[in-house]
């Protein structure tokens, strides 16, 4: 079996297996802990605070007016590279073909040239994100191996993808194999680090938003 | 330097105690909150301690770092891996001792950080849980620990020259208002901040006067008089329960339909949002803040007020009542009814900055220099409104502002909303 065959064969299967089991393990790990009943009388009806939670799941993507002056630039940077990543992963035609073979349906993609531009922009934003993490005193204090490794492995996927598309540095098959191997590595790392926030973000916002709304508190 | 209680546990016992306390409390919800943090540091931008100092150690989520570390090492899904490969170190006694400053001196548990997190994490809830663990580790600050210990034993946070019951009656006599005390039955049970008894007796009289005006069947109870809960501040959950139960038992004994929390922010949180959990079942009465109670009475037409308040005024929203308690409109409706020319602070309502004294910080002497630095944000906002009068609805906030007035030789004196209502009660003409 050649490198490409392994990368998209057993390599990918193993990576998806670790990803799925790991994600389930991470979630089950805390979801099975004790859930305490709240006996304090809610200020709002159940439907109202559930609705408020769902609203918070979306609204927290945009900072409150009171905070935007201090956090707007950082959040814009954060959300921009996420949007870039989504565009590259979900709207690049070869990715759609691969995902289509897994899910059984496809969707329209963006032209390759546009994806290349988005990829380069996203790459630039990624570097800016790292620069910010290294220079912002709060972020530097909070950061650990997980933050840097998760950044590195996502960046690796982006760089190898760009190299494969642009045919830079080696034969296309080799570049593609390296790119898919980097994806395999990302999938394997995913459940062990902060990339799990992809699964947590909306439930976390909704849950905490609902619990605050239960008290009538600001959320 | 560690400010702690006697007898001092060994450092090892401290760690075991803290981790046990935290592990006992960690449920699915807290674990989810700890799991969700992406280390973006945005919560720092909501915290007045960080904004005032630019010191990253005051980042709210950093204040729970040892507990995050302990959770990941001891209870998370990946705990075996963390331990096997030594990826998360055990929390040390020295580390916990350092965190006393971060969890007590530099956090008002005001909850502003919970509004900014892009992951939606309620950071303030995690900090409260971490305080419980610190208490178990013997690392509650002395000032809070001693008051909590005294209160859980005697009902009073500290010894007073005269019992509070007697002082209450004396206040009634001085202000010429009847103090309903120890009635066997009443619709509303009243309690009082000891801050008011000692510093603002006029607020106690105001409460009695408003209740008299409304003609409500109400009573104070000698055995459940004090609203404050130092168990809540210090992190001593069992003591918090004992202190809350004293009020709950008295409210049940007098068959109260409402337990009315006076102008005391944290007392409202402790009784409205935590007491039933500590009681183990739903409370057989409603818990209302005096501000929302007066708001409801105003809306129902039972409370009529004179529109007699002149001059520009601004309102400081107590965090526990407004942001965390959801009582945003009632104070504004009351002020409107009194004709207050309200000029809102730049950050108001649910987004208001804490006065800096909440969460027991006002009681911690060592925290005073830092507290004054953070207060400057609030004082600047107040000055910027151009208001002549500052109104608030929490005795601890009021005391914090009074202290600021002295420290900064500031030109404003805080006024109680309750007292303002009491002095603007309209005489209803007999028909």
Polypeptide structure, described:
The complex is a heterodimer of chains A (219) and B (431). Chain A has helices at residues 3-8, 10-31, 46-59, 65-91, 93-103, 112-135, 137-142, 145-166, 172-189, 197-214. Chain A has 219 residues and is mainly alpha-helical. Chain A is globular. Chain B is an alpha/beta fold and 431 residues long. Chain B has 3 domains: 11-140, Orthogonal Bundle (Fumarate Reductase Iron-sulfur Protein, Chain B, domain 2), CATH 1.10.1060; 161-298, Rossmann fold; 301-422, Rossmann fold. Chain B has a 4-stranded parallel β-sheet. The interface between A and B is large, with 63 and 65 residues.
Secondary structure elements and pairings:
The complex is a heterodimer of chains A (219) and B (431).
Chain A: H1 3-8, H2 10-31, H3 46-59, H4 65-91, H5 93-103, H6 112-135, H7 137-142, H8 145-166, H9 172-189, H10 197-214
Helix pairs in contact in A: 2-9, 3-10, 4-5, 4-6, 6-8, 8-9
Chain B: H1 11-25, H2 28-36, H3 48-53, H4 65-74, H5 79-84, H6 93-105, H7 123-136, H8 142-154, H9 164-175, E1 188-190, H10 194-199, H11 201-214, E2 218-220, H12 230-234, H13 237-253, E3 258-261, H14 265-279, E4 286-289, H15 290-299, E5 312-316, H16 329-337, E6 341-342, H17 368-385, E7 389-392, H18 395-408, E8 414-416, H19 417-422
Parallel strand pairs in B: 1-2, 1-3, 3-4, 5-6, 5-7, 7-8
The succession of helices and strands of chain B, N to C, reads: HHHHHHHHHEHHEHHEHEHEHEHEHEH
Q: How far from one another are the termini of chain B?
A: 68 Å
- Sketch the major β-sheet of chain B: 4 strands, parallel
Structural class of chain A: mainly alpha
* Backbone structural class of chain B: alpha/beta
Keywords summarizing the entry:
heterodimer; A: 219 residues; mainly alpha; Fumarate Reductase Cytochrome B subunit; 10 helices; 0% strand; B: 431 residues; alpha/beta; Fumarate Reductase Iron-sulfur Protein, Chain B, domain 2; Rossmann fold; 3 domains; four-stranded parallel β-sheet; 19 helices; 49% helix
């Amino acid at each position: 079996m050649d490198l490409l065959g392994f990368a998209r064969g057993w390599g990918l299967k193993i990576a998806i297996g670790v990803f799925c089991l790991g994600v389930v393990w991470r979630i089950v790990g805390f979801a099975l802990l004790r859930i305490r009943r709240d006996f304090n009388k809610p200020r709002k009806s159940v439907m109202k605070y559930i609705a408020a939670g769902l609203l918070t799941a979306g609204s927290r993507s945009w900072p409150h007016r009171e905070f935007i002056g201090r956090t707007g630039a950082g959040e814009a940077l954060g959300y921009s590279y996420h949007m870039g990543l989504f565009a590259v992963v979900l709207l690049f035609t070869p990715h759609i073909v691969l995902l289509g073979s897994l899910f059984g349906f496809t969707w329209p993609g963006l032209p390759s040239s546009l994806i290349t531009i988005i990829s380069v922009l996203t790459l630039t934003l990624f570097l800016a994100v790292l620069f910010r993490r290294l220079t912002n005193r709060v972020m530097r204090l909070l950061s650990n191996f997980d933050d840097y490794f998760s950044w590195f492995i996502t960046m690796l996927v982006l760089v190898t993808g760009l190299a494969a598309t642009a045919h830079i540095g080696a034969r296309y098959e080799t570049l593609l194999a390296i790119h898919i191997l980097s994806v395999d590595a990302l999938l394997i790392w995913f459940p062990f680090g902060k990339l799990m926030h992809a699964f947590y973000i909306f439930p976390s916002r909704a849950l905490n938003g609902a619990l605050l709304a239960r008290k009538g508190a600001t959320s | 330097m560690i400010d702690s209680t006697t007898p001092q546990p060994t450092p090892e016992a401290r760690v075991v105690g803290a981790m046990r306390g935290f592990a006992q409390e960690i449920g699915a919800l807290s674990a989810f909150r700890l799991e969700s943090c992406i280390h973006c540091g945005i919560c720092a931008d909501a915290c007045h301690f960080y904004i005032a100092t630019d010191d990253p150690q005051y980042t709210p989520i950093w204040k729970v770092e040892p507990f995050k570390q302990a959770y990941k090492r001891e209870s998370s899904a990946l705990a075996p891996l963390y331990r096997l490969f030594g990826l998360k170190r055990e929390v040390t006694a020295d580390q916990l001792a350092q965190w006393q400053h971060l969890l007590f001196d530099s956090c008002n548990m005001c909850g502003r950080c919970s509004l900014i997190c892009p992951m939606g994490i309620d950071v303030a809830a995690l900090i409260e849980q971490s305080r419980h663990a610190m208490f178990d580790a013997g690392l509650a600050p002395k000032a809070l620990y001693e008051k909590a210990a005294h209160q859980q034993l005697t009902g009073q946070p500290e010894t007073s020259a005269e019992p509070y019951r007697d002082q209450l009656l004396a206040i009634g006599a001085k202000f010429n208002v009847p103090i309903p005390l120890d009635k066997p039955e009443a619709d509303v049970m009243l309690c009082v901040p000891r801050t008011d008894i000692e510093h603002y007796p006029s607020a106690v009289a105001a409460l009695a006067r408003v209740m008299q005006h409304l003609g409500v069947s109400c009573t104070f109870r000698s055995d459940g008089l004090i609203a404050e809960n130092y168990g809540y501040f210090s992190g001593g959950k069992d003591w918090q329960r004992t202190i809350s139960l004293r009020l709950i038992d008295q409210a049940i004994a007098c068959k109260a339909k409402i337990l009315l929390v006076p102008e005391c922010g944290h007392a409202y949180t402790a009784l409205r949002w935590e007491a039933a959990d500590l009681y183990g079942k739903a409370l057989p009465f409603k818990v209302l803040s005096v501000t929302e109670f007066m708001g409801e009475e105003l809306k129902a037409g039972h409370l009529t007020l004179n529109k007699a308040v002149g001059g520009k005024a601004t309102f400081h929203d107590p965090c526990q009542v407004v942001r965390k308690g959801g009582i945003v409109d009632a104070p504004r409706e009351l002020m409107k009814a009194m004709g207050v020319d309200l000029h809102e602070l730049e950050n108001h309502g649910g987004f208001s900055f804490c006065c800096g004294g909440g969460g027991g910080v006002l009681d911690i002497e060592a925290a005073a220099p830092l507290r004054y630095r953070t207060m400057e944000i609030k004082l600047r906002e107040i000055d910027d409104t151009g208001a002549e009068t500052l109104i608030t609805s929490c005795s601890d906030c009021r005391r914090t502002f009074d202290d600021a007035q002295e420290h900064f030789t500031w030109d404003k004196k805080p006024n109680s909303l309750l007292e303002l209502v009491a002095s603007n009660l309209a005489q209803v003409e007999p028909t």
